[in-house]
């Protein structure tokens, strides 16, 4: 697309940056084959581009670039304290992709990363090897879609399919794949696995339209969930993060009713509830970049480096949503 007076922003992934060390990986060739008409630029290290100072995250989000890189260290991380472990002792997460194609106003990635460009690490096999070393010591509960929406990018990477193949060989590995996408069709031919949980984040349509920019509607997500359940997959529903917005009771009540009128509640694996919470440092950066955000204008309370709503508002949100969900789902299947 050429520049014009009305449209001067290049389309998404108009440029693809490739680390020298990433050039000859099979995944690099597979990904590049889907972007034959895009400008390709070779770089020494992805951080030379991704970690530059004085970047404008908001402008980059309009037209993000794609970076193909090699992940050299920190292949697997211990689970963060703000995340639910669902009773799993050995809780970890990994990032084979950094950043997301969606643009949620409350997303912590804009506080964590200096750039909105998307990084795909092409050496996913090295992550597999690291996990295999861990599995020799103990079982592993691994979340693979925290720092991106990996299912939304499946058409580019096939990484979900790779992870499913890996999980099928390791019964003491349990994987959660979290998404806001409606892209189950990308893996619908894959065989459902007992040690893989597909987890969908759901929000009221009003919140999706205002604050979860570029994400599919609630109905589209529910259609994808329905199809996954029909194919035999374990599905987790995540009402997380709950947002303290105007008419929140009405919005979440409608959302929950719609969810369980559409889905058979007894076929849901479990349900997760959590309010908006974020690192204090990430929040400061987000507030600077989004000074007019209604969500970020809330007078958050911070404790031990984590910021969230006041205890009164947090308790109200959780209690109401829990009671609404428990009309449909057994209480022992609801995590708060």
TrEMBL record:
Keyword Lyase found: yes
GO molecular function terms attached to this record: 4 iron, 4 sulfur cluster binding; DNA photolyase activity; S-adenosyl-L-methionine binding
UniProt-listed InterPro entries: rSAM_sf, SPL
Keywords: Lyase
GO annotations of cellular component type: endospore-forming forespore
SUPFAM superfamilies, alphabetized: Radical SAM enzymes
Domain of life: Bacteria
Pfam family, one: SPL
Name of this chain's protein: Spore photoproduct lyase
Origin species: Caminicella sporogenes DSM 14501
């Amino acid at each position: 697309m050429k520049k014009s007076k009305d449209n001067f922003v290049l389309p998404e992934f108009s440029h693809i940056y490739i680390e020298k060390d990433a050039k000859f990986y099979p995944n690099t060739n597979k990904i590049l084959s889907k972007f034959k008409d895009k400008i390709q630029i070779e770089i020494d290290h992805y951080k030379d581009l991704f970690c530059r100072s004085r970047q404008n995250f908001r402008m980059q989000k309009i037209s993000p670039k794609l970076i193909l890189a090699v992940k050299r260290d920190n292949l697997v991380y211990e689970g963060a304290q703000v995340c639910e472990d669902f009773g799993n002792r050995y809780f970890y997460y990994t990032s084979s992709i950094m950043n997301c194609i969606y643009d949620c106003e409350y997303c912590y990635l804009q506080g964590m990363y200096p750039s909105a460009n998307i990084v795909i690490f092409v050496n996913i096999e090295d992550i597999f090897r690291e996990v295999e070393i861990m599995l020799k010591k103990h079982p592993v509960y691994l979340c693979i879609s925290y720092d991106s929406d990996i299912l939304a990018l499946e058409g580019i990477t096939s990484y979900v399919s790779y992870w499913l193949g890996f999980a099928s060989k390791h019964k003491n590995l349990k994987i959660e794949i979290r998404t806001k996408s409606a892209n189950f069709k990308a893996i619908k031919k894959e065989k459902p696995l007992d040690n893989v949980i597909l987890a969908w984040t759901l929000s009221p349509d009003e919140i999706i339209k205002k604050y979860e920019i570029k994400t599919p509607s609630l109905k589209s997500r529910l259609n994808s969930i329905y199809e996954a359940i029909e194919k035999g997959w374990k599905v987790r529903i995540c009402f997380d993060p709950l947002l303290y917005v105007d008419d929140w009771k009405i919005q979440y009540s409608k959302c929950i009713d719609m969810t369980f009128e559409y889905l058979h509640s007894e076929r849901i694996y479990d349900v997760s509830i959590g309010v908006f919470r974020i690192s204090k440092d990430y929040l400061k950066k987000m507030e600077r970049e989004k000074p007019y955000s209604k969500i970020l204008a809330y007078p958050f309370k911070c404790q031990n480096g984590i910021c969230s709503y006041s205890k009164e508002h947090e308790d109200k949100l959780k209690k109401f949503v829990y009671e609404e969900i428990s009309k449909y789902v057994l209480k022992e299947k609801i995590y708060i």
